[in-house]
Design a protein that fits this description.
Length: 353
């Protein structure tokens, strides 16, 4: 089930954050320019949630990060174009149709399925039909037999269906909601995947997490403290779920950072920038105008320059990940006889019910 033991197993974890993912994409584009290769060739596993999930899927296909930068820069305002929604009461203020159309283009995902990915990826979402978390995975384990058949566009739309911003996304007769509600910073999920599906020890694992210049949501002490709609959202009721979603993903970022630093001492790097008071006014999950683009692209350019010269980041860019083993799909590289043998061993060692 596991590949040959190696001394270093690298994970790239990409956070969600709506249009702020332009920051992530620009950082990665600069890294690719520096190494003159797809960034996915440096990582053994890529995890991404929401916009981070869309970027992760693109990287796993070896779509250049610069192409994602161009897509968000050119079409961001179309993706986040407000529609009539009765202040968010009747329906979400943004339609996901334009994003789906863009991701379905031949230069992005087209009609390709998850099994077309050249690198391992894990993408969290919420299956609202079952009420359970769902993690879409490339077929890098003998038991991962179904996800590789799903269209990448469907997985991308499922992980990025942010509540209060976009409508739920339906495919395979199930409704999905943004995975950011429970795993906006997916580094811990990826570490678990490396340990339990790929049998890597904690000592081998190194994680680079890239944030999205997330705002820290804090209380205004002058506001109503009664916990009602006005307290959380002000006079516009649609602001309440948005603020709760923002608080949730902000706290998750902080918790994941804290736990990964403890779990992987000296083997974890977070690449992100704090928003100043002035810049935070220009940036948001649904802000895609010129000011937002300027802040995100400018901050990413400065941060990438620092990272490329950093002793902490340099080993991540130097590492060459060996080809991944895939058991199913168009990139399957495991002989059928070995698959049968492994399947038999798994069944023999499975606990009885």
């Amino acid at each position: 089930m596991n590949e040959a033991v190696q001394s270093r197993f690298q994970i790239l974890a990409l956070s969600g954050g709506g249009f702020r993912g332009l920051y992530t994409a620009k950082l990665l584009a600069d890294f690719e320019d520096e190494i003159s290769a797809p960034i996915a060739t440096r990582f053994d596993l890529i995890a991404g949630t929401s916009i981070g999930g869309i970027i992760a899927l693109a990287l796993a296909l070896e779509v250049p990060a610069s192409r994602i930068v161009a897509l968000l820069t050119e079409y961001g305002e179309e993706i986040f174009k407000r529609r009539w929604s009765l202040a968010g009461i009747w329906r979400a203020p943004f339609s996901s149709r334009r994003l789906a159309d863009l991701l379905s283009g031949s230069e992005m995902f087209g009609a390709r399925v998850l099994g077309a990915c050249r690198h391992r990826a894990v993408i969290p979402a919420i299956n609202y039909s079952t009420g359970r978390p769902q993690i879409f995975k490339t077929p890098h384990h003998i038991n991962f037999k179904r996800d590789h058949k799903f269209r990448i566009v469907d997985i991308a739309m499922a992980t990025s269906a942010a509540p209060a911003y976009f409508s739920r996304y339906t495919f395979n007769n199930n409704q999905f909601v943004d995975g950011g509600l429970y795993a906006n910073a997916p580094g811990l999920l990826a570490v678990h995947e490396a340990q339990y599906s790929l049998l890597r020890s904690a000592a081998e694992i190194h994680v680079m997490a890239i944030g999205t210049m997330s705002s820290k949501f804090t209380v205004d002490p002058r506001r109503n403290r009664e916990g009602g709609t006005y307290d959380w959202g002000g006079i516009n009721p649609s602001n309440m779920p948005k603020r709760l979603f923002g608080l949730s993903i902000s706290v998750q970022e902080a918790l994941s950072d804290f736990m990964l630093a403890h779990l992987l001492p000296g083997r974890y790097v977070l690449v992100d920038d704090d928003l100043t008071d002035q810049r935070s006014r220009a940036v948001g999950l649904d802000k895609a105008d010129h000011a937002a683009r300027e802040v995100l692209l400018g901050a990413a350019s400065e941060r990438s320059k620092i990272c490329i010269g950093s002793r902490d980041v340099e080993p991540y860019l130097r590492h060459l990940a060996p080809p991944a083993t895939f058991f199913y799909g168009e990139n399957a590289n495991t002989p059928s006889c070995r698959v049968a043998s492994i399947t038999a061993r798994v069944r023999a060692t499975a606990p009885s019910r």
